[in-house]
Amino acid sequence: MTTTEGSPDADIKIRVRGGGSITQANTPLYIVDGFAKDDIKDIAPSEIQSIDVLKDASSTAIYGSRGANGVVIITTKSAQQGKISLSYNGFVGVKNVAKTLDVLSPYQFAQKQYERAVLGNTVPGDYEKYFGNYSDINLYNYMTPINWQNETFGRTGVTQNHSVALSGGSKKFSFNANYSHVYDKAIMYMSNYYRDNVSVKLKYNPIKWLKLDLTSRYTSTEINGSGANDQTGMEKSTNDSRVKSAVIFTPIPLKNLVTQDDDIEASASLYSPIQSSEDNNRYQKSTELGVNGGATINLTKNLSINSTVGYSSSDKIDNRFYGLSAYYTREGGAMKRDNQTAPSTFLGDIQRSTFQNTNLITFKKDNFVEGQNVNMVLGQESLIRKYYSYTRDIEAFTRTKMSQDVWADLSDGTVRPTRPFWDVDYRSLSYFTRINYDINDRYLIAATLRADGSSKFSKGNGWGYFPSVSGGWRISEESFMAGTQNVLSNLKLRAGYGQAGNDNIPNSSFLRSYTSSLSTYLDPTVFPNIYSAGTTLANPDLRWETNITQNVGVDFGFFKGRINGSVELYSNKTIDALMAVNTSGTGYTQQWQNAASTSNKGAEITLSAELVQTKDFNLSFSFN
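Given the sequence above, the corresponding structure tokens read:
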């Protein structure tokens, strides 16, 4: 588990047994209270009751393509029956950068510049212009350097998290309401983060055979700062990296820096990380609303029907500012003002919505045949995702203006044509069945078959079929192990094999795309825009990427469960891996193809122990 980079809103990156896909997301599927989510940034830690991770394909197969990289199941807290509870949870923490990189001292920096000047035959001219006579270079040993790493990442960060929860209920009805506020002053200059979250969870059992669930969640987020090295916007280069600038920029005060080098990297080194941060500022504000509801009908003691419906929508403002030192201003084609480079801003509005529906029929019967138990599930689910973005480019502002000045007076700039983008709707439809069968709780077998249909592939390739099977032998339940129960309380041998599909590519990769652009050779009053072929070459032969998982393991427990553990070997293989392949020379830049395969193998060892277990005190140990 890591964070993706240094911005205050950086996603938490979770990898379950490594990654299988080369260029696509290897993020697991998150299931929160039975409903799928793309991320868990809006889940307050104080709301979480438990977290479980499903790793092998036999256990994740029921979730289909979305569970191809593992499944993280999160259960939030529910009300305790019979009483109303009001609780507060809060913490305040401080943070500082843990370690900085070693950089040149003023003397070493001056010496390096002298050596470069000698090699470039610019001594004494260029060197003495900035550093003085070389015979006085020892004076730099007594100069205090500017610590740019401390100037950029040296703030004392403050994190505050406050949450209030109200819960209560009766035998038929229960509720849980939670409000949380997060403030994070990042260690990086100009960066901070705010988040407010409200959630409500309701459960209602009006009659014995009917159960209703409703969960709603609203989140508001505000983020200032573009992070240590953001490249998700116009920064298609590492030249604006604040980390790099903090390391290589001059440790002594120098003015009017210029370079004779035409290299873009060299020109980027002329700007301090503070200026780079100010000239690459970013402001984001987003709101998200999610509502999920479900109903379970118990038709008989052994047969039930469950249907869930979920809807989520988000609206995000993403404003970017590019000042005079930004890569986009210097090299990216920004408009000029009075024949000079000038600041620009990009104002983005992104809207997303997701609708999902799952329907299950479950049959469960113990002693179906004497000593034999069966659990069968037949299910269907559908998913629809919509995406729309609208970007306004306003450029050529007054050169002295900074981000707040620009955003306060947009009329000072020149508006470029807007860039609306409607993505093709993503639609998926799945059917699946699962059977769990055991004999005397000793011999266990589970099998799943899933058919997934995706709108991301052409008509002949839209459906993929993915089976899985697993088996277990609980050796500790055998009669010949009867004398070992007090010491060896659990011993189980298990193995599994499964397949899962992955369709995580742009929605219309199999279709020819077109790009709207300004008309330069036709009358703009008649043809203000023209459509030309896009940069991605269509591929109608795209098909599902398939992840194959095999595993074998042993679970063990000693002393009536006081010590538990497992040892497992696994092998993951991805075939027909989806990736963007460079197609330069064809008139297109790339094409999505099933172009590769990957594999990873490993071993997992887990161990847990209840060291002290009394009525009033527990002490446990776990290792993974």
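Residues 106-119 form the longest helix (14 residues). Try to locate this feature in the token string yourself.
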